[in-house]
Amino acid sequence: MPAGIRLAGAWSWRLLVIAAAIAVVLFLIVQLRLIVIPVLVAVLVSALLVPLVSFLVRHRWPKGLAVTFALIGTLAVVAGLVTLAVTQIAAGSVGLSDRFAASYANLKEVLAASPLALSDAEINGYLSQAADALQADSQIFITGALSVGSSLGHLATGLLLTLFSLLFILIDGTGIWNWIVKIFPRRARPAIAGAGAAGWTTLGNFARVQILVATIDAIGIGAGAAILGVPMAIPIGVLVFLGSFIPIVGAVATGAVAVLIALVFNDWWVALLMLGVVLLVQQIEGHVLQPLIMGTAVKVHPLGVVLVVAAGALLAGIPGALFAVPVAAVLNVMISYIHSGAWRGDVPPAGVTGGSVLWQTIPQRPGFRPSRRLDTVETDRARETRP
Question: Is the per-residue pLDDT at 2 higher than 70?
């Protein structure tokens, strides 16, 4: 066999094995999604709350009181945003049918006067075709309506699991992580502990930066809607804030909703101005905030962000798009840390509480003197041979 064929064969079967292992992991995640998604949500939220709890404990707050304050404060903020949005929507939906009819008539006049010169018969024909297509696919909506009860049950179960997971992470996150590290062989524990610390730091940076970016988007689009006189500006801002946690896809969807509201409740030129505000905010986010802030925090190229979001959406829908970037960023940092060999020193990885305990469990041969610098394996092996 030529050397090239042997090399290609060796690479091929190894890549096939790796791909099969990844496929099995993804299959298990999809099958256990009702457990995996709440746990991931709890981990993501805990990356924000753990620093707050640590800050309160350092200022002589009891641990239980600090955890309770963090949990209740988070629930109060989320409940306040939802209540505010629902109240504003209920107040602004009065006379919605009349406004929709007026906007529809105005839109028909604009289309008739435009270069398209669409007549009422043509517009009604297009609407009829859309209604026929919707009726043809009505089985999908009927199935979804029948599964509402099951979906609500899953939602309640997931919410409770998220709260319990978040509570235990805040109370004893260090113990949970040390238990996970002890599952691995002793020689691998320094690498796993250091990679976990690096990944945790990256996850915290991502969560904080994402909240900052989402807040800027919500303020920009919500303020633009208020200035233009678009009703329900506050619900629009809340929707933009929540949608911004899904990179790219969330911004486009929430921006389309803002433009649609402006088209229904205002004139078409207000909708065009609202579209301009949405595009301006998204351009600032895409060309200023994401490269300067998000790129520094997660260290993932914008093209990589687009690809992982698309892959996550294809594999797991909205949850996949939501967790694609943080998972990719954490894996990137952890793999880079392990590959760098920085864990071969004798200093426990920074940021891992109790890491020194795990570090001391690594067996060392007689006469071994671990490197105090982050040297290569060959240097450490050479030092082992010293008398």
Answer: yes
Spatial separation of the C-alpha atoms in residues 117 and 114, rounded to whole Å = 5
Residue type, 165: S
Cα-Cα end-to-end distance for the chain: 47
Three-state DSSP at 282 gives helix
Answer yes or no: is pLDDT of 269 > 60: yes
pTM over 0.85? The answer is: no
Q: Looking at mean pLDDT, say which of 169-178, 242-251, 343-352 comes out highest.
A: 169-178
CA dist., res. 343 & res. 341, Å (int): 5
Residue whose structure tokens are 């690594």: 362
Look up residue 373 and give its two tokens: 């610098």
A 10 A CB-CB count for 122 gives: 13
Categorize the per-residue pLDDT at 211 as very low, low, confident or very high, splitting at 50, 70 and 90.
confident
312-315 long-range contacts, CB within 8 A, separation 24+ = 313/249, 315/26, 315/30
| 305 or 95, higher pLDDT | 305
Interval 32-56 mean pLDDT: 88
Amino acid found at 114: S
Give me the helices (H) in the chain, please.
3-31, 33-58, 63-92, 96-113, 120-136, 138-146, 148-183, 189-227, 233-243, 249-265, 268-284, 295-298, 302-340, 355-359, 377-384
User: CB of 297 within 8 A of CB of 206?
Assistant: yes
Cα distance between residue 371 and residue 344, in whole Å: 8
Per-domain residue ranges of the chain: 94-118+171-384
Residue carrying structure tokens 């290569």: 376
